[in-house]
Design goal:
The complex is a heterodimer. Chain A is mostly helical. In chain A, about 75% of the residues lie in helices and about 0% in strands. Chain A is built from 13 helices and no strands. The radius of gyration of chain A is 25 Å and the shape is globular. Chain B has 13 helices and no strands. The two termini of chain B are about 20 Å apart. Classes of the chains: A mainly alpha, B mainly alpha.
């Protein structure tokens, strides 16, 4: 459909335009990530307090503080250190943890792997189910299923996600004893052997998505199925699965693409908190302990990961939305 | 629009119908049923919101004990010491819940007010300024968006240490970016209105213009937005308290209380259940209030999608996207998904 509408324009010119738009998007994304990293670095390092002083005990000598400052490289100007950080980051070196001395990139790698299990499982299991439920609700608004699902959505959005997590732990772990209270995987065994620890975190993450996915997709399905062209298709005798597949879903698809980005951002934010609830050793727990220990290089590394995730998710979904929107840019404004 | 021809309703009808040609004919269909529905939502929302707010305001006066004092055996069941028993350090749970609301809701309220102020001022400034400033604000808000709220608070605490002030500033900064484009778009629609134009031509300065012409017309949007922003703020502050970013430990704070009680919840679940229920009351109440405000603003009740009258006017647009504004709002405010429906 896209190609047919674009016939008047030369193919090469179109391809060039797409390429240029893509390059512009990429450059913009990189600039935003760099800006976010610089902002985080400056907030943490341009401060009145002295990290070296705070890291040592109360009863310490000025000489010890000075030694700590030079050990951490804090005796150099902030902007110089920021430049160094960028230069090293470009070479794949994110610095070394102030507490453990381990490479930040290495520590991050382990945590990202664990977090990816949580987020990935939620994306694979919850998002298709919720989308299907939302479409079902949208096709029969006001029905029993619709009302029940909306009630669940309202209920889940009334509790903060961490409270949902703790309350579920209270019921399923403390009272019923069917699921483990602490979700620390045994690193020596493959994750597939210990999926039981993922159940509650994934359920909580999925519940945080219910209100978002159900309400938006349902609303879009309702809007589309009341539109004139769907009515026209109905009058032509098209109904059931064909109507859904050929006429309703194509119009819902761009919204799904936009939602995907929001979903990833919500999951990235919520996984930080959900991991703390279940003591799951992912990127959220890493961030929590790094903040508690004032381990600035690790916090900086986590910030880089989260900022990149947000920017990539937004960029990809923007591109996907453009592709999925019917004859985008060709219709009269 | 049925309501009088005050400048407010005029501006409203204009801004809705000019919603890039996708206007919904909501106002004309205001039936008596939706009126009652919206009034019920308003009353229920007000009552539900009032409970936790009353706890926050009056709690410290009603609390039977000092929230930090050890009163007896740790983890005593309800009824033995206080109404809800004692926590893992033998402190009265009820008193801690009653004191904790002031910390949590107080910080959240200040943060939400700050965000609203910055957002409205920023939005008006963006609408009134040139291309360069607009591009710069766009870049800044994308950078802030790439630092999710909980990360921003973590970074601030890592840098400046634990304090209520850090929480307020951090939450306000995290909540501002989505508001700026919202206010900027509305302001641009307003600036094109004849009454604003005439004020500009008669020599009004920007502050005067903002006070006399823009703010009165933006007020309903600001009110509806503030309700949602407050809810986002409360959830953010609680989550931050839960992962240990809030005020230092002896201070009673709902998020921190839930975190502290997690290890001993089998023996004493009340430090978890009581704050969670109060938070849920507040959330449900604020959501109902925001629905009621939106219903008042659009002259219809409930979510637009569930109303039979909200058909799409232009079939070519049906395959298009969700209202860009709503999505931008949702994208920039990942914590509170229900905003997508706005």
């Amino acid at each position: 459909m896209h190609a047919q509408r674009a016939v008047p324009r030369r193919r090469a010119e179109l391809a060039f335009r797409h390429l240029a738009a893509g390059a512009r998007r990429l450059l913009g994304g990189v600039l935003v990530i760099a800006g976010a990293c610089a902002a985080v670095f400056l907030i943490m390092n341009w401060l009145p307090g002295d990290p070296a002083r705070q890291r040592l005990s109360l009863y310490t000598t000025p000489a010890a503080v000075a030694a700590e400052r030079s050990r951490l490289g804090l005796d150099r100007p902030v902007l110089g250190r920021l430049g160094d950080w960028f230069w090293h980051a470009l070479n794949g070196n994110l610095g070394y943890s102030w507490t453990s001395g381990q490479s930040v990139a290495h520590t991050l790698g382990q945590s990202i792997g664990n977090s990816a299990w949580l987020v990935g499982a939620t994306l694979v299991i919850a998002v298709p189910i919720l989308s299907a439920v939302a479409i079902a609700c949208g096709l029969r608004p006001g029905g029993i299923v619709d009302r029940a699902v909306l009630a669940v959505a309202a209920l889940t959005s009334a509790f903060p996600p961490f409270a949902i997590g703790v309350l579920l732990l209270l019921v399923f772990s403390a009272k019923l004893g069917v699921l483990p209270a602490i979700s620390s995987p045994d690193p020596t065994r493959p994750m597939l052997d210990q999926l039981d620890i993922l159940v509650l975190p994934v359920v909580v993450l999925s519940l945080t998505l219910v209100a978002l996915l159900v309400q938006v997709i349902r609303a879009q399905v309702i809007t589309v199925s009341r539109s004139a062209y769907v009515e026209a298709a109905r009058l032509r005798g098209i109904g059931g699965p064909a109507l859904l597949r050929r006429h309703i879903l194509p119009a819902v698809a761009p919204v799904l693409a936009q939602l995907a980005a929001i979903t990833v951002i919500v999951l990235a934010t919520e996984t930080v908190i959900v991991e703390v609830v279940f003591a799951y050793p992912g990127i959220g727990s890493l961030l929590q302990s790094a903040v508690a220990e004032q381990d600035l290089p690790v916090v900086q590394g986590v910030a880089l990961v989260l900022a990149t995730l947000v920017v990539v998710a937004l960029g990809l979904s923007g591109a996907l939305t453009t592709m999925l929107t019917p004859h985008h840019g060709e219709r009269p404004r | 629009m049925i309501r009088g021809s005050s400048s407010r309703s005029r501006a409203n009808s204009r801004s809705r119908s000019s919603d890039r040609g996708r206007g919904r004919r909501g106002g004309a269909r205001t039936g008596s049923r939706s009126r009652t529905g919206s009034r019920t939502a308003l009353i229920a929302g007000a009552v539900l919101t009032a409970i936790p707010i009353a706890v926050a305001l009056l709690g410290p006066l009603l609390a039977p004990h000092n929230p930090d004092a050890t009163l007896g055996r740790p983890l005593a069941g309800p009824g033995s010491v206080g109404l809800l028993g004692t926590d893992q350090l033998g402190r009265d749970v009820l008193s801690r819940v009653l004191y904790g609301g002031r910390t949590t809701l107080g910080i959240a309220l200040v943060a939400a007010l700050g965000a609203e102020l910055m957002g409205v001022a920023g939005g008006i400034a963006v609408a009134a300024s040139g291309r360069l400033a607009r591009a710069l604000t766009g870049y800044l808000s994308r950078v802030l968006l790439a630092i999710p709220g909980i990360l921003l608070l973590s970074v601030l605490v890592a840098g400046f240490g634990h304090s209520s002030l850090v929480m307020m500033v951090g939450a306000a900064l995290a909540l501002t970016p989505p508001l700026v484009p919202l206010i900027a778009t509305r302001t641009q629609t307003l600036i094109a209105e004849p009454f604003v134009e005439s004020a500009v031509l008669s020599g009004s300065t920007l502050p005067r213009l903002a006070r006399r012409e823009l703010l009165p017309n933006l007020a309903p949007i600001i009110a509806a937005d503030f309700v949602v922003r407050l809810l986002t703020s409360v959830f953010l502050i609680c989550a931050a308290g839960f992962i240990g970013l809030g005020p230092a430990p002896p201070t009673p704070e709902w998020g921190l209380m839930i975190a502290d009680a997690e290890a001993t919840m089998q023996q004493q679940p009340w430090p978890i259940i009581a704050p969670a229920l109060l938070l849920a009351c507040l959330a449900a109440g604020l959501m109902l209030l925001s629905h009621a405000f939106i219903a008042y603003r659009t002259g219809a009740s409930g979510s637009t999608a569930s109303r039979p009258g909200s058909s799409v006017q232009d079939p070519r647009r049906a395959g298009g996207q969700l209202s860009e504004e709503a999505l931008e709002q949702a994208a920039t405010d990942p914590l509170r998904p229900e905003q997508v429906l706005r």
